[in-house]
Amino acid sequence: MTVDILVNVPIRLGVAETLGPYDERLVMKGNYRSFHVPILIGDFSPKLRRLINLYVIRKASDGRKDLTPTVKAFKVWVRWLIDYNINPFSSYEFKYDSPTYGFRQYLIERVSSETLSSSTANAYILVIKDFYDMLDYEGIVNSENYYKSKLSIVDGYRKVQSSDLAIRVVKAGGKSLKPLNEKTQAKLLSLMENQSEEFKLILKLMLTCGLRLSEVITLPESIFREELFQGESVIRGLKIGPSVNVETKFSKEREIFFTSNLLEQVLDYKNSKRYSLRKLKRESRNPLGAKSSRLFISKTGRDFSKQAFYSAWFRLKKEYERKYCDIFPHKPHDLRATFANNLIKFAMNIEPGNQEVCISVTKYFMGHVDEKTTLKYVSFFHQEGFANCIAQVMDEFFSTALKDEL
């Protein structure tokens, strides 16, 4: 389905004369206002298209000047609705299956993968939230099914009416790495054993190969072959990118870090009865159309989607909190940061005096275009190590001081 923006559409706001039997054009009565607005066009739901454009016209009539960013937000949202087969007028059992919370999570993922700024993501979700306010006012939906209002305190004293859809805006230069520490990794690995085979394998690929979510769910089954085994611990020559229909950042081709142990797990999954049944379901859903070749398939026979992943991720976080009585403050993209941090750490242990090689290896397997991106991980590694050393010295100092006092 196509979704696009038609710019500079002339609009007249006022009262129209009643059309006579031979009138060929609309004539406005008395005073009226003329303005030009962008509108959304395409072969998606006529009802949704009409309501979106009505929203845009209302904003123009309220004096809003540049409505292009607003319509861009709708364009991204509608494309997402189509991709994940979401009905914008229905409420869903799971948060991340809804047309608001699910879209919010999609935007957050794009922010994490650095394909969208946090300020733009927040602006987009606020447009959708305001759109549902209009639908509520018109009696079409109940906005309480799509978001919850909340009162936020800013700067310790300012009260701001907000909602649980808002996305935190990170100031320039304020982004920080948030890899999982060793204890959190151990806890996560323990919980992963109780997850579905698909979700568990996806997490392992993100954590041990540094794959982005968009990359791992578009992996084709055909690239995982027995011939890749060469008697080494690391599999070489396993590449992803547009050539194998993997959605990499900037459509870049790159080799990924892959262990022989992990390849065995992927091949075992490919040869399992569970996987064969899912492939049959996928083929039965579309017997005449083009066959998908993606590795991960949902139990309904569809390609595993980001929505399915986030639903499982949300449940995993809740399970983590219940089991360990602690919050799991990480996003899926933090698994990639964890891989990079682990890679730097192990490389530094092997070649402690050769930082240049460590940076080069990490840059290669992370697929970084700019070395400055890799240096963030090196800097984080040194800061973390330096902070740990300071903590040990301080502990020893206070411990000795306490003994001397006693």
Explain what you see:
The N and C termini lie far apart (77 Å). By secondary structure, the protein is an alpha+beta fold. The protein has helices at 46-61, 68-83, 101-112, 118-137, 182-192, 197-209, 213-216, 260-270, 273-285, 306-324, 333-350, 355-366, 371-405; strands spanning 3-16, 28-42, 149-154, 158-163, 234-235, 239-240, 254-255, 258-259. The chain has 3 domains: 3-163, no CATH class; 182-333, hpI Integrase, Chain A, CATH 1.10.443; 336-405. The protein has a two-stranded antiparallel sheet.
Instruction: Count the E strands.
Output: 8
Radius of gyration, whole Å: 26 Å
Q: Which shape, going by the Cα principal axes?
A: elongated
Biggest β-sheet, characterized? 2 strands, antiparallel
- Give the amount of beta strand, in percent: 5-15%
- Show unreliable segments: 389-394
In which range does the helix fraction lie? 40-55%
Category by helix and strand content = alpha+beta
How many domains comprise the coordinates? 3
- What's the end-to-end separation, in Å? 77 Å
Order of helices and strands: EEHHHHEEHHHEEEEHHHHHH
How many helix segments? 13
* Strand ordering within the main sheet: 1-2
Overall pLDDT: 84
Organism: Oceanimonas doudoroffii
Protein name: Tyr recombinase domain-containing protein
Family: Belongs to the 'phage' integrase family.
InterPro entries: DNA_brk_join_enz, Integrase-like_cat_sf, Integrase_catalytic, Tyrosine_recombinase_XerCD
